[in-house]
Design goal:
This protein has one helix at 119-123, and strands spanning 2-3, 6-10, 15-19, 25-28, 42-46, 49-53, 57-60, 65-68, 80-82, 85-88, 98-102, 112-117, 139-141, 144-148, 153-158, 163-169, 188-190, 193-197, 202-206, 214-219, 242-244, 247-251, 256-260. The protein is mainly beta.
Amino acid sequence: MLCAGKLFVGTGEKLIAYDAATGKELWRTPAAVYKNQTERPIETRFNNQPALQTRDYLVNLNGEILAKGGYSVWECYLPVVEDGILYNSSNRRSEYSFEAIAIPKQVGDKHNLLWKLEAKTLYGPQGNMFGGYYVASPLYVDGLIYQVDSTGNLVVIDTKERKRCYQLWMDGYNVNDYRLYGYCASPTLAGKNIYLMDTVGYVSLLKPGADGTVTGTNILQNITSLPASAPCKQEVFYAGMYFEGKRMFIHGDEYLYCIEEK
């Protein structure tokens, strides 16, 4: 991630900082401090200064530990931080719930669990029967958290009311296998719409807000042999969408796509 002119990279054992302009290494944490922290750090604030939240530590931009504590996740999923609160959908409905965690703001403070929602509150009395987990990270827009699991089950949480806003099964080819179909790309806000793309390029446009209105759908079709195990021979898309001006960039198994408004 980029912050204050520095590029921060999490490895299997260290957090490394580089000068973003020159590529020069500035510092790296000892292995014992950052062990098994492979995810990208999350930018936040501590005592009105930029800071980085990892799974186990809150550190400053020089790599010094400010507070011990973090969050529990699985693999590449990354929580979202807004106004000093970390929102974590985690990974498995049968084991974890949605959590709102206050990040320390000054010396002596600790990470504080503010509130949480159990799996059955989010998904109903049989919330874990489909076995979904999260690869896509959540999106925060105007007090609402948008999270879609590997089966295409979208749940929207109202962080002010501390309750589920609505639940929606996404259209497309979303079966419970993130290596084939399902959802890996994180929901992305661009212009007036939230974009959700499943693993074979089926895109749904969602209107932000409590209504759950789908404003459009489209599919990026490309018959390919990559990967060989993909059903229907449709190109697979794991990476998130990126927007720059009127352009939308999508990285598939075979091509990098640029879609532009005319």
